[in-house]
Amino acid sequence: MVAARNEENCIIRCLESLARQNYPAENLQVLIGDDGSTDRTGELVRKFCKKHPQFSYVYIDGNWKGIRGKQNVLAQLARRASGEILLITDADIELHPDWIGTLAAALKGKTGMVSGPTLVEGKGFFAKMQSLDWLMGMAINMAHSTLGIPLTASGNNTAVLKSAYLETGGYEKIPFSITEDYMLFRKVCEEGPWKFKMLFRPEAFGSSLPVTDLTGLFRQRKRWFKGGKDLAWYNISLILFNSMVLPILFVGLFLLPWQICLALYLVKVGSDIVFLTVSSLFLRKFWLLLWFIPWEIYYNLAALIGPVNQILPTKVIWKGREY
Q1: What is the C-alpha separation between 309 and 47, in angstroms, rounded?
Q2: H/E element holding 32?
Q3: Percent of the chain with pLDDT over 70
Q4: Alpha helix locations (H) across the chain?
């Protein structure tokens, strides 16, 4: 299931990667939901579907009661889905040829939902900073999943058993959220009987396009933080602590010897290196570590600016709509 709104610059990249999947075409149904696009998205998708009979274009005509945006699109597509497994990705994602088979094979026993790693890939400094940002986020999610306290599924790289999805009542029965992936994860795995698994390997990999400017980045992060307000208290505590590390160390300079503050900061940097090194090796993206030093500066600045961005009285803007 692919939700698309004004994606003429990337939708074919996504659909071609789905067409290249090492998975029997006769067992695959690809549903692309056009959420009121005003560009050539619909035209491009319809042309593509004519050449690939397992692909279907679906125009999303109106919102179902209580939901909108991507959640509304996925709710309507899920009603049309005839398979036993629902795989969800975004229109700007390019997927590994073994993506479907890898995620589908992991749904066994009590595992009702799985998610693969997604990284931003692009040229230039800003894209590389986002790549490492996403790599760190994926590494943290993997660590939590390994400890049995997963954070969330990734809305652009997820598979869920249809039976597990239907037990929630479907997206139309799940409270509306601008981070619909977390709400589905919560209903299936935190409140339901199903287990979640994070698949941290190249075969489950998805490549996302970077945000092109700071305004877009701030809007993206604001949406993530607003949608994540219902995270468990220990998850929120870790996020807040990460944002407060530098301010705490700065205040510590007036209370403690500078050597202790420096040692504590180096411990933080060391933990960042460990997380990124391990995750980059798993995904065979080791070259990203060449950007570690500028990223560490970028990451610390983002951690300071992030809370300010959240408290500003601005609305969340996503795909040209305000929430």
Answers
A1: 41
A2: strand 30-34
A3: 93
A4: 11-19, 41-51, 69-80, 99-106, 125-146, 162-167, 180-185, 214-227, 233-252, 258-283, 292-311
**Predicted structure pTM score:** 0.87
Specify whether 266 is located in the same domain as 129: no
Same domain, 91 and 162: yes
Is the pLDDT at 318 greater than 90? The verdict is no
Tell me how many domains the chain contains: 2
Closest CA to 168 of 195, 189, 188, 183: 188
Alpha carbons within 13 A on the beta-carbon side of 47: 9
Letter string b/e over residues 160-191, b meaning 16 or more CB atoms within 10 A of that residue's CB: bbbebbeebebbbebebbbbbbbbbbbbbbee
CATH code: domain of residue 51: 3.90.550.10
Q: Of 154, 153, 138, nearest to 185 (Cα)?
A: 153
| End-to-end Cα, the chain, rounded Å | 23
